[in-house]
Known about the structure:
- This protein is mostly beta strands.
- The protein contains no helices and ten strands.
Amino acid sequence: FADLTSGDTFKCKLRSSLYPTNSPDVVEEMTLTILSLDVEAIHKEVESGTDATISCIITGITQQLNNVVWTNSAGTDVTTLTEDDSYVADVGSYDSNSQTTTLTVKAAVNTADSVFTCSITSDEWEVTDRESSVVLDVFVVTLVDRTV
C-alpha cells in the first residue's frame, strides 16, 4: 500500500457467500481517498499585553476529535481553568476531514514568551494524548523620545 495515493481508482470485486464457487465480478470502480492523521501547530508572535490566539489544525480525520486539552508551559490544564478568565479554549468542530482547536491567551497573562501544548485524543485513529507544542512569542514595543 506504500505506493497508493489519494485519487487512485480501484475496481472492487466481491465474492458471494451463497455461491462460493462463482468467480468474483467487477462491481464498481472506486476512487480512493487516503487520510493520515496530522497536527499542525500554528505559532504566533504578538505584542505583550494583547490577546493572542494560537491553534492546532488536525487533518486526516472523518469525525470530531474525542478530546482536546491545552496546557501551559508549567503543565497546567488551561482548557477548563475556571478560577479566572486568562484563557479561552475552543475545541473546534469537525469539517471536511479537519478540525481546528484554538487557545486565546488573554492580555493580562500574555507578557512573556510561552510554549503551550495541544493534546488530542482520537478514537478513530486510536490515539490518546498526542501532543504538539505551540509557541507564543511576545515582543515589547518601547517608545523612544526623539525630541531635541
